[in-house]
Amino acid sequence: MSTDNGFTGSAHGRPRAFAGRVLLGCFSAALLLAGIATRIAAQQRPHIGIDDASWHLESSSDGIALLSSSVPGIGIVPLKATMTIPGTIEEVSMVLEDVSRRGEWISNFGQSVVLERTNDYDQTEYLRVAMPWPARDRSALIRARITVSDDLRRATIAAESVDSHLGDALPTLVRSTVYASTFQMTQVAEHVEVVALVFIDPRGSIPKWIVNYFTRRVARATLGGLRRQVARNLYSPPQLMAMHQRMQAFRTFREQRAIAP
Predict the structure, then answer these.
(1) Is residue 205 part of a domain?
(2) I need a surface site. Which of 100, 187, 223, 229 has the fewest CB within 10 A?
(3) 10 in a structural domain
(4) pTM for this one?
(5) Within 13 Å of residue 232, how many CA atoms lie on the same side as its CB?
(6) pLDDT in tens, 102-157
């Protein structure tokens, strides 16, 4: 039996593990660590930039640094994570985009469904996040948009909650909020520098300190999983070349949109 406060009343069955998303939703993981949506007017949504001066280091281990900050008026602490992955942006992007394999590296993966793909750089996705008993699972509708620098050395995924009917056929569960979050990849020599900004409120009655604690644990586990998945070299040279060509095509796409009536 379920209640309306975000928790389930039954203690029977196997406890469900907490899961997150790294703002990674199909070339978007990045959303990795993320997952969740609600109706909030844009002007009301809390925001913090990836380069904001208020970020401070919380911990660093296994090549993954976690930083935190604060946003006035909200108890959720935004999280910023940095790490280096040997390889190329194309290789990392292939892992992020492969929905069928996300369960292999995203910590306690729930569900991911691409609802609409307007073009190669813009898509809407449904996410389901498993929560530990007695909390109910969360769901999210997010929009992820990709930009690529002209020199192809940086790709950025920006994601946040959207209000859409595209996911009406999928379980609503408890709808949480993904505030503006970012997954940024920068090519430096033979490795990719990753910066992920995760800002999520799962809603319901979960104490904010528990949310903040698990966000950090899931972020570290998922980023470590991403690095290991890239190292498996699962994608062929033709697949990587196709991804490179999509990155090259972004400039033309951007210019065409700029001159469109």
Answers:
(1) yes
(2) 100
(3) no
(4) 0.80
(5) 13
(6) 889 987 678 888 999 999 999 999 988 777 777 778 888 899 999 999 999 999 99
